[in-house]
Amino acid sequence: MCPRSWIVVAAFTILASVNAGAQGLDTCALSGHVIDSTRAVIVSARVTLSGPNLIGGPRHVSTGPDGAFHFTALPPGTYDLVAEAAGFRERRTTDLRIPAGGTIVLDALLEAAGVTQELEVRGSAPLVDVTSSAVPVNIDQQMLHDLPTSRWVPSLINLVPGVAADAALGGTQASNGMFVDGVDITEPHYQDAAGRINYNWLEEVQIVGLGASAQHGEFTGVSARATLRSGTNRYSALLEAWASPSSWTGTNTGSLERDQAKTFASKEQLAFWDTSAQLGGPIVRDRLWFFGGFERLTDDSRPAGYQWAGSTRKEDPRLIVKLTGAPSSSVRLEGFVSHSSNLIIGDGIDAYTPIEAAWNTHGPQTNWNTKFTWTLGARTLIEARLSGTTGVSYSDPHGPGTKDGPPPRWDGDTGLYSDNVWFTYKMGGSRLNGGLALTRSIDHALGGRHEIRAGLELERAHSSDAMHTPGGIAFDCYGGEPYMAYLGGDFSYDTTTARTTVYAQDDWNVGSRITLSPGVRISSNRGGKVSGGWAFTTTPVDPRIGVAWDVGADHKTVIRAHVGRYHDALFSSRLNSDVGASYQEPLIFAMVLGPGEYEEINRYDPGPVTPMQSGVKHSYADQFVVGAERQLKADLSVQAQYIQRNFRNFMGMIDTGSIWAPTTQKDTGPDAVAGTADDGGTLTTYQKTNPGNETFVYANPEGAHRGYKAFQVIAKKRYSHNWQLQASYTWSRNTGNVTNVWHVNAARYDLGNPGTFVNPNVMINADGNAPFDFTHEFKVLGSYRLPLWGGFLVSGVYRAHTGYAWGRKARVNLPNMGSARGVRVEPRGTRRTPAINNLDLRVEKTIRFGSRQTLGLFLDAFNLGNQGVPNAEEVNPVQELSGPIFGQPLTWVDPRTFRAGVRFTF
Questions:
Q1: 200-229: average pLDDT
Q2: Rounded to an integer, what distance in angstroms lies between the CA atom of residue 609 and that of residue 578?
Q3: CB 697 within 8 A of CB 612
Q4: How confident is the model at residue 503 (pLDDT cuts 50, 70, 90)?
Q5: Between the CA of residue 897 and those of 270, 784, 862, 872, 874, what are the distances in Å?
Q6: Which among 530, 620, 607, 605 is positioned nearest to 570, based on CA atoms?
Q7: 565 or 605: which carries more pLDDT confidence?
Q8: Which of 291, 331, 735, 785 has the greatest CB tally within 10 Å of its CB?
Q9: What is the dihedral of CA 589, 592, 595, 599, to 10 degrees?
């Protein structure tokens, strides 16, 4: 272990010695007081908690001198609470739903003993957590089962107010964490969610971001933490099948001009089958449970605008096995293994990519986790984890082209890719995580009660890639004539990264109404093994503090405020390219002068390189949120909040060797034809005066920035009286000179090469609205069970938001301008695609057989209104480059599609 690691371990030991914590990241807690009718506390009352997910049997505690009780390290689920004391009637509270990661405060009021010795209260837990300054969103199993969704687990974050297109609260796409039972299932290259988990395997999903405490890190968007189902003391099973025949998909391109509609057809769903089975139950009652499941997914379709033979066919079998054990009432052991084997034939086809330019991709992935939880009395918890994920993706030409050629082409006039895939690749990644957390409740210290958590996390990841250009050369063309060539550049990546993190978090009850939440997270990031050590190191520090004011004695109103810093994960993609890369041949950017004649403008030479600027700092987001929440009725709450996030210290590429001189050119207008009525004015562009002297450096580009401001109003109705609801409105503004499209914060696109801070032509008009700047967003999700003919469920998800922000680029082709495809003549985000207005609806009929068997029949309708517009939730939904197809759609929302399902459970 390196000296820095020893320092962190020592720091953790010191923190542990001061009595840390409350509950783990994926568990929850219940606390309160036992009181009499005068609200005086009752000492030595016996409190019992029981529930189907609580292995080891019911838990028992006794109240102390202050009448308080605490239950920690609880799996999320539904519980019964019994409070009893001599001389009082027993009080039983049933059907308490406790969400993952939450702490519920519930007082048990006992009445003097009379004729009736027991009082049962049927009701839900408090809806508002008045002790927390965080604002998580929990999606429980009831909501997961009821809503019509894509059933792709990582996309669940898009149900959260202020999140769309996987861009969360102003953050970059794919800058989100994704955990399943504590396993980080994001791959190390770009933090894309890599693990494939079946919807039905989930107990609950908690999505944190606003006000997230120090236990949560390595994201600047949000972090989703899914809890897997476990077995219980009774056997249960599920069999399910979904289908969508080709005739159940409509058309929605009628808004296009007649000539374009002939070639730009709607998406075609050729076949869709999704079947799954699962079983759970006891191996040894109250001591050892099992859960297992299998799924097979087949999806065969043609995307909107696709006009050639072939389709994209996906085959993805998945399986999982999980064991949960309790050797004693205070010890819980659990672990799971999941595997998927994903195969995609015709990967990457779209309106401008025929199958000859597509891949065949195979990507097997495995995830596993073990967790040990030890509860020492009612106030102390120790948790240890060890988990990992491994995956590899092979992408080769679909054919008839091969790795040997012909060379691929892209045409700026038509937007078409042709002849072959742009590149072939093999991308592999693995991640090993270990963690230790100690938690403890402390009363009467520093004037209040404390819930202190301290933890240590260790991570080591490995990523490898190999990329090849078919035929050794690729061409950019106009009108079929090559104008730029990319020669050679075959390379392989192999990089190791490591992270050591220590954190401490205190929830400090100051008096009876105020909770302060100071915390800090400190990480040591290392990447790129080179002789003598690591090529890249950062030590980000994330201080955070929040306050929650429990306004009334009824625990139904809270005012919150939180400020904190959140650093990005350590992406291996740029370290791969710049530290772990081994080029077998130069990568040359060249202007095409004639057949076989080229003028070089950029070059990457063979051999490993380490272009790291000294003192590079890790990218982060500073976040401030303030708001209030009020529980209006037993199951209804409303909240309003203001959010501000500033993204800084972006890590990306700069060029310290090139010298650029301004030039003046004519803007030939949207049609890119000189001398027509739409010609624009003059443009100031830049030419390189010393080609061949490029010096690319990985750094914090000066002036790189993006900011986000938002105001939200959210209403939530927990499931009761046959219905549930979440309705929200978000107004936001997301601006800067760094976009929020895929992988930008992993030093790609704007922060890559050629990028905004490498080529001054890309910097022109770069400041403006981010592409996924959805100014207005309405979101409603809910369900209602109709008590007709034995019961029907009607549920839906409605989304409406502002369109994608874009602007025109002029076609400019001069030698030594770099490889940028066009120059912005309008500030970024000047134009908007049409707004998204989408309703997905489900109708379900459930038939019961006896007390436990049910048969569910489903019909889902996606895009019920059959809206037809460019898909504002995809990158580059329209052609921004001047020319024959300027402004035409590159993507399109899926048309109205019906899907039928059947589910049998017992």
A1: 93
A2: 6
A3: yes
A4: very high
A5: 12, 22, 5, 19, 19
A6: 620
A7: 565
A8: 291
A9: -70
The burial class, CB within 10 Å (0-12 / 13-18 / 19+), for 533 is exposed
Domain count, the chain: 1
Q: Which residues pair with 448 in a beta bridge?
A: 510
**337 falls within a domain:** yes
Cα(719)–Cα(77) distance, integer angstroms: 14
With a pLDDT cut of 90, the percent of the chain lying above it is 58
Contacts of 190 (CB under 8 A, 6+ apart): 174, 571, 573, 742, 743, 746, 748
Give the tokens for residue 236: 């249960």
pLDDT per residue over 18-65, tens digit each?
A: 333 334 456 778 888 899 888 888 998 999 998 888 888 888 888 888
Which residue type sits at 157? I
Domain that holds residue 567: 137-905
List Cα–Cα distances, 87 to 47, 109, 110, 114, in angstroms: 15, 13, 10, 9
Give phi and psi for 423, each to the nearest 5. Answer: -160, 160
Say which residue, 37 or 704, is predicted with more confidence: 704
Query: How far is residue 874's CA from residue 895's CA, in Å, rounded to a whole number?
Result: 15
Residue with token string 């580009």: 701
Q: Residue 70: inside a domain, yes or no?
A: no
Nearest Cα residue to 772 out of 706, 859, 825 = 706
Within a domain: residue 622?
A: yes
Q: What confidence tier does 329 reach under pLDDT thresholds 50, 70, 90? A: confident
> Which residue(s) pair with 780 in the sheet?
727, 798
In Å, how far are 240, 423, 470, 492 from 496, measured between CA atoms? 41, 24, 28, 14
Three-class HEC string of 690-703: CCCCCCEEEECCCC
Give the up-direction half-sphere exposure of residue 899: CA atoms within 13 A in the CB hemisphere. Answer: 26
Structure tokens belonging to residue 349: 């086809």
CA–CA dist 222, 231 (Å, integer): 29
Q: How far apart are alpha carbons 91 and 119 in whole angstroms? A: 5
**What are the DSSP calls for 68-132, one per residue?**
EEEEEEEPSEEEEEEEE-TTB-EEEEEEEEE-TT-EEE--EEPPBP-S--EEEEE-PPPSS-TT-
The one-letter amino acid at 384: A
For the question of whether the overall pTM of this predicted structure is more than 0.70, the answer is yes
8-state DSSP, 745: G
Note whether residue 51 is domain-resident: no
Give the DSSP letter string of 146-201: HS-----GGGGGGGSTTEETTEETTPPTT--EEEETTEE-B-TTT--B-----GGG
- HSE-CB of 37 using CA atoms within 13 angstroms: 6
By mean pLDDT, which of 19-33, 56-70, 505-519, 881-895 is the weakest?
A: 19-33
- The strand pairing partners of 520, in sequence order, are 504, 543
CATH number at residue 622: 2.40.170.20
